[in-house]
Amino acid sequence: TKCIVLKKAKILTLRFSMTTTSYLNPHLTQEWNDWLNTNISNGVEITTLAKTLEQHGYHIAVGDLLKNYQIDIKHPQIDLSKNFIDIDNRRIPIIFTAQAPKVVVFDNFLSHEECQQLIACAEDKFQTATVVNAQTGEYFTTTERTNMNAVFQRQENAIVSVLESRIAKVLNFPIDNGEGLQILRYHSGGEYKPHFDFFDTTKAGGQKAIEIGGQRVATFLTYLSDVESGGATRFPSANCEIRPKEGMALYFSNILLNNNPDPLSLHSSVPVITGTKYIATKWLRQYPYG
Ligand code: PD2
Ligand code: ZN
Fold it and tell me: Does residue 234 line the site of ligand 1, with CB under 6 A?
């Protein structure tokens, strides 16, 4: 009898090790699954493998992989333990926070001079702003968004680099995960109707948009001008709005901690009534972008 029990135990161990070492991703070919399993058993980090899959256009397979290994997408981490953050020889007061949607507002994020420099380098670049077509992934102009925008490469010039590195430090989030900075200009009547910044991955256009860099996990807006009347950033689900103020910045999360899109992150820029609104937008991706 002793002998039989031992034999049974051995078979069980064998079965157990087979099921835990062989992972099968439903979105991948056998070849890619073999590649995954070889790397996993060689100890390569799951997040590294996820990045490689992204780079090869297998973004659709990443969710299942991360879920199977219970790995969360990295979110920006803002130190909220004090009412200010000291970096770059400046004190950045945290003046407002909310949990749902996750929002943080910073005062004194940029100086008057820094705002002026950003506006100056955007002036000759402005073009009519576009939005993405959810079905095709193509960009087009629309009355949903009546502002002008200037698009920059990452670290395109000194002042863009200053803003990008400050954002990265405050969010504890890699500079490389940011899309190129966009500076928006709204004249009187200019607005940006309610929208989400995350991509709708149930549509072909959204799938296309996340091929490089993955989902837009968060948005960081820096107000570059005071606006006399109108021009607030509004969150209809929270029924609240952030009024523009030169040098102030607004962070909000577009996805929840479980990595699903956050429906409460719906937001708009209400029409400017008097004055001109300038804002710098930084969209932050799940993975290095571009
Ligand atoms: O300019 C704004 O306040 C605003 C509002 C909503 C900007 C954006 N969205 C954006 O750039 O995504
Ligand atoms: Zn937006």
Answer: no
